[in-house]
Amino acid sequence: MAEARLLYGVIIRDAMGSGDKELMTAMSKVSTFMLSRAEGRDEALEDWKHADEELRKALD
Question: Is 38 left (phi over 0), alpha (psi -120 to 50) or beta?
């Protein structure tokens, strides 16, 4: 799963960069769902969590 975690921060930030609120909202829903199932602790997971927080702030 660690390899997939590397992508979430990148994908979330790409969605934010698009400025597409519909895409950002969908990405936020997926991220929230997947984060609730993520286990362990590593640098990629921490980056993902940080990107998820950035996305939530951007949607507010």
Answer: beta
